[in-house]
Design goal:
Length: 357
C-alpha cells in the first residue's frame, strides 16, 4: 500500500504556523510532494529564510508524515520566499523585498553595531542582505565590515556595493570625505538617500538594513518619502532608558507611517569574556518594561562584551567572529524575531501591538 498525496497533505494540516495561526497547507507553504514507494519528499516554503521556528516546523512535519502507514522515510526540504511589504503607492525599489531601519536614540547606544550584527545574522540564516549606512555624522559601517573598497560603477552607471562577510554595503562614507558629510543639509541628504536606493545595483535582497543617524530627522523623513519601509527597530540602553528619547523616536516613526517592529536593549548586562558569567551592571529590564508600557514588542537584550567592540573595530563583527558568544546569540535571536515580525506584516495579518499613540 502506497501513501497518497492527499494523505500527506491531510496530515500536514496538523502543522500550525505559530505566528500566522493557520496550518501550513492552508497557507500554501507545502510546495511539492514526491512519493516514491515508501519514501516521501516534500518542500515547505516559508516567508523568510530567517524563520526562528524553521527547525521545529521541519521536524514536526517529518514526524507526522513518517507516521503514515506505508511510509518508510519522510524528508522535508525547507525553502523560503521572502514576502515584501505592499507598495502603498510609493515607488518600490526593484529587487529589494524589505527595508528595515535601525535607529532612534542618542549616538553611542549601539545602533550601528546592532545594524551590522543583525544584517550578518540574517545572512547567516540564509537571507540575501544589504546594509546602507545613512549616518552622515559618523559613517562607520565600512570599517565595521572590514571594507575599504570604493563602489565600482557599472556600464549603466550604477554603483556596485562592495561586500563584507557576504553582505552588500553602501555608506555615505564611501562617497564623501567624512569631514564634509557633517555639513550636509536636508535637500542634499534627501538626494543622497534617493541615490542610495535608485543608483545602487543592490540586486535581489530579502532585507536592506538602514543604519540611521542619531536623533530624529531629515534622513528618516527622506527614507520614508522615497521608499516603503517595512519597519523600524529602536535601539536603547538600560541606563539611558530615557523613555522620552524613545517615545520621540517612536512618535516620529508612527507619524511617518513606519511600523515599529520593536525595541532592542543593548549593553543590557555584562558578560565576562573569559568565563561567560553575567553581571547586571545597570540593572537590566528597563528596555523590556519600557516596551511594554509603550505597547511595543521587546525584541531582546544584548550584553556588553568587549568582543562586540573589538569585532566592530577590527572589521569582524561578533556574529561572525564568535557566533557562540552570548552577545552573538542575542543578535541572532533578535534577527529571527525581526524577520518574523516583518513576515507577519507582509502577510497583512493584524499585529498584536497597537500602533496608535
Ligand atoms: N553590546 C556591546 N558591548 C560592547 N561594546 C558595544 C556594544 N554595543 C556597542 N558597543 C560599542 O559602543 C560604541 C558605540 O556603538 P555604535 O554602534 O557606534 O553606536 P551608535 O551607532 O548608536 O552611535 C562602539 O565602540 C561599539 O563597539
Ligand atoms: Mg552609528
Amino acid at each position: 500500500m502506497t501513501v497518497t498525496q492527499d494523505q500527506v497533505l491531510d496530515v500536514l494540516r496538523k502543522v500550525q504556523d505559530p505566528d500566522l495561526h493557520k496550518d501550513i497547507v492552508t497557507l500554501g507553504f507545502v510546495k511539492e510532494v514526491k512519493i516514491a514507494g515508501g519514501e516521501v519528499d516534500f518542500t515547505i516554503e516559508l516567508t523568510t529564510p530567517a524563520c526562528p521556528v524553521k527547525d521545529q516546523l521541519k521536524s514536526q512535519a517529518e514526524t507526522l508524515v513518517a507516521g503514515l502507514p506505508g511510509v518508510t522515510a519522510a524528508r522535508a526540504k525547507m525553502t523560503a520566499d521572502t514576502r515584501a511589504r505592499g507598495g502603498m503607492g510609493k515607488q518600490e525599489v526593484p529587487g529589494i523585498r524589505n527595508i528595515v531601519a535601525v535607529g532612534a536614540g542618542k549616538g553611542g547606544v549601539g545602533k550601528s553595531t546592532t545594524s551590522v550584527n543583525l544584517a550578518l545574522a540574517l545572512a547567516r540564516r540564509g537571507a540575501r542582505v544589504g546594509i546602507m549606512d545613512a549616518d552622515v555624522y559618523g559613517p562607520n559601517l565600512p570599517q565595521m565590515l572590514g571594507i575599504d573598497a570604493q563602489p565600482e560603477v557599472t556600464e549603466d552607471k550604477k554603483m556596485l556595493p562592495p561586500e563584507g562577510h557576504g553582505i552588500k554595503a553602501i555608506s555615505i562614507g564611501m562617497l564623501v570625505p567624512p569631514d564634509q558629510a557633517v555639513i550636509w543639509r536636508g535637500p542634499m541628504l534627501h538626494g543622497a538617500v534617493q541615490q542610495f536606493m535608485r543608483d545602487v545595483a543592490w540586486g535581489e535582497l530579502d532585507y536592506l538594513i538602514v543604519d540611521l543617524p542619531p536623533g530624529t530627522g531629515d534622513v528618516t523623513l527622506s527614507l520614508s518619502q522615497s521608499v516603503p519601509v517595512a519597519g523600524a527597530v529602536v535601539v536603547t540602553t538600560p541606563q539611558g532608558v530615557s523613555v522620552s528619547d524613545v517615545r520621540k523616536a517612536v512618535g516620529m516613526f508612527r507619524q511617518l507611517n513606519i511600523p515599529v517592529l520593536g525595541v532592542v536593549e543593548n549593553m543590557s548586562y555584562f558578560v565576562c569574556g573569559h568565563c561567560n558569567e553575567r553581571t547586571d551592571i545597570f540593572g537590566s529590564g528597563g528596555g523590556r518594561k519600557m516596551a511594554e508600557d509603550m505597547n511595543l514588542n521587546f525584541l531582546g537584550e544584548v550584553p556588553i562584551d568587549t568582543r562586540v567592540r573589538e569585532g566592530g573595530d577590527e572589521g569582524k563583527p561578533i556574529v561572525v567572529a564568535a557566533p557562540d558568544a552570548p552577545a552573538a546569540k542575542a543578535f541572532d535571536e533578535i534577527a529571527g524575531r525581526i524577520a518574523q515580525r516583518v513576515a507577519i506584516q507582509a502577510m497583512r495579518i493584524p499585529l498584536k501591538i497597537v500602533q496608535a499613540d
